[in-house]
Design brief:
two-stranded antiparallel sheet, alpha/beta, Aspartate Aminotransferase, domain 2, binds pyridoxal-5'-phosphate, Aspartate Aminotransferase, domain 1, 11 strands
């Protein structure tokens, strides 16, 4: 029996009937773009996040681009972001014509290292993009003061920093509803959350061709809207996201109880972590990954080539060794199966397989 890395189909199966009836209501209404479901979802998401406003957009990448543009970031500006993240984080900065300035990450959290961020701030720094990587809240309170922080919360819907939700603390937070994220859509979708009414207004304008009324065009904008159909199912899933996140946290705790910590470096637990991915570290990563794959167990090594070493950013001149912690975690990280609905037996099999791979290594 194979064990997938993530199992969205199994997660959504119990909701099949309700999903179909929500879709039927939209079909019946005949409204597919910016209708009542998008508006209601924006209100419900803003209330959940404790953000003043939320604006639905086409995907998490656009959410970042629109926020950076609404903040006035463009050519000549620098934006600090971690090198250990999905490409879209830095792509959005470069898409605005600004320069991504890559900082290193912390080994224990895999999130941006505030000390290294401070070192890279210059007179041209206009923003910091903090990524809540793999669902773990980044240390926003330790970032340099006075520079707008954009939270890339694509992997962290529902994560908490103290009493606040990730995405509601910075100048703005951006979310993705790609189907494997903690709050999934049945396709692409994204959201901008912000307490700044003017910023929200600007994002609303940009997502709709720079127009408020589709008659008068005030800016060169985008066509970047959240679909009514996606909003209808997102409202259903928003009501389940805490249950799903609790199930992820419980499964993460179970890996620890099963003794996985004797075999590799586990992600340190933290109350607000929502385990978008369960990522361990081991110098024997490739051997463990091969053993899991041979047993039909899903796993993934994330961001093997970190962003500062990607060909597109070669002109920025970072070399091998420029960001040592990033490069080490890129070699050592491995995501193990974790999803709402994973069973203790499946987790036991994962741990047994890691154990045999690691001890084979030790016997050499
Ligand atoms: C998924 C993701 C994005 C992009 O979201 P899309 O909806 O796929 O455009 C951006 N940043 C991070 C960290 C992500 O994981």
């Amino acid at each position: 029996m194979t064990i997938p890395l993530v199992d969205v189909k199994a997660q959504l199966a119990p909701l099949r009937g309700e999903i179909e009836s929500r879709i039927a209501v939209v079909l019946e209404s005949g409204r597919f773009i910016l209708g009542p479901n998008v508006e209601a979802f924006e209100h419900e998401a803003a209330a959940y996040l404790g953000a003043g406003e939320a604006v639905g957009v086409a995907n998490g990448t656009d959410a970042l681009v629109l926020v950076l543009e609404a903040l006035g970031i463009g050519p000549g500006d620098e934006v600090v972001c971690p090198a250990f993240t999905f490409y879209a984080t830095a792509e959005a900065i470069a898409r605005r014509g600004a320069t991504p300035v890559f900082c290193d990450v912390e080994r224990e959290t895999l999130n941006l290292d505030p000390v290294d961020v401070a070192r890279r701030v210059t007179g041209r720094t206009r923003a910091i993009v903090a990524v809540h990587l793999f669902g773990r809240p980044a240390a926003l309170e330790r970032l340099p003061a006075g520079i707008p922080v954009v939270e890339d919360a694509a992997q962290a819907f529902g994560a908490r920093l103290g009493v606040a939700r990730a995405g509601a603390l910075g100048a703005a937070g951006t979310f993705s509803f790609f189907p494997t994220k903690n709050l999934p859509a049945l396709g692409d979708g994204g959201l901008v959350a912000t307490g700044d009414a003017q910023l929200a207004q600007r994002v609303r304008l940009l997502r709709l061709h720079g127009s408020r009324d589709k008659q008068t065009f005030e800016a060169v904008g985008y066509n970047s809207r959240l679909d009514e159909l996606q909003a209808a199912v997102l409202r259903l899933f928003l009501a389940r996201v805490d249950v799903w996140n609790d199930a992820r946290r419980e499964a993460a705790g179970r890996y620890e109880q099963l003794g996985l910590g004797e075999l590799c470096e586990l992600p340190a637990d933290e109350a607000g972590h929502v385990y978008h991915m369960y990522v361990v570290r081991t110098p024997e990563r490739d051997r463990v990954a091969a053993a899991l794959a041979a047993e039909g167990i899903g796993c993934a090594a994330y961001y093997r080539t970190p962003l500062h070493l990607q060909p597109v950013f070669a002109p920025l001149g970072y070399g091998e060794g420029a960001l040592p912690v990033t490069e080490q975690v890129a070699r050592e990280n491995l995501a193990l199966p974790l999803f709402a609905g994973i069973t203790p037996d499946q987790q036991k099999r994962v741990v047994a397989c890691v154990r045999s791979a690691v001890s084979v290594g030790a016997a050499r």
